[in-house]
Amino acid sequence: MTWNPIFPWWLVLIIALAVIGFVIWQLIAAPKGARRRGWAIRLVVVVLVMLACFRPGIGSQRAAVVERALDVFFVVDTSASIIAEDWDGTKPRLDGVKADVKALAEAHPGARFSLITFDSNVVQRLPLTTDTSALESSLDALRPEVTKYSSGSSVGGAAELLAKTLKKASEDSTPRARVVYYFGDGEQTSTKEPESFKESAQYVSGGGVFGYGTPEGGQMRETASSLATSTPDYIEYQGQPAKSVIDENNLNQIAQQLGVSYQHRDAGTTAQAAQVNAEETDTSRSNDVERAFELYWILLIAATLLLLIELWRTSRATAELAAAREGVERDEP
């Protein structure tokens, strides 16, 4: 049996003990009957999810592993304009960004990857890791900021965090090359001047700035929380559909500040990966390792089925309670 927790094992253990302890307390305090059964189901669900967080595996299989002394940083604009519908005709720009990030990751096998996103806030969503599945999961979950919370964004919003992250990576005892890829449309919606990426240039071995959008622009749908079920409306400005237009002047300035090339992206072309100096990656090595067959997905499926049972039970109880109240109201004089 192998274990590969999604967070440091001690952090997962602390969270697991706290949540399981709370559920057990509620289970003991609950009166006998349906409520106690409900807490028992919740306890099993929590245990399954916590076990899944440890990413258990069994058995092993030989898998080739390539390690390179290369760090790749993806910087992605997640402001509202990144879902303007002018990618490949009518698709959101974010679709193109996700496809390009995955393709560029494949172009750098064995590298460590990090994902930074920016809108009104700047977040490092993925610290440096060689786990490409973690990168893909982060990309699949990537959404633009919720529209009603947007307060304008700057195309240079990630400059400070990127510089700090690059500086920290440069302090690694093993010399490593560093590549930065920036993805955005260059649209500055903040009233302040864009921050400069010049501080990051000293740490960058290569990379690229990728621009998305068209001069004609694309409409954007409002972004709600992940719990919303209705189809969002298009964003309007002064009673007319708002459009986002690419600003290649800003994107070219960012490319100059980082010391990399600029590429305008469209669905009919391929994102060009940076050609990193071979001397900076000559510590690369290839070997074989044993990789376990992971079981976390089985645990999550079991937890989901139990949650569906609990949801059905709760819905039925709610319906019965509503019917009982309706009967009482009819019986009242």
From TrEMBL:
The chain crosses the membrane at residues 6-27, 39-58, 295-312. InterPro entries: VWF_A, vWFA_dom_sf. This is VWA domain-containing protein. It comes from Pseudoclavibacter albus. Residues 71-258 form the VWFA domain. CDD domains: vWFA. Keywords: Membrane, Transmembrane, Transmembrane helix. It holds the Pfam family VWA_2. It comes from the Bacteria.
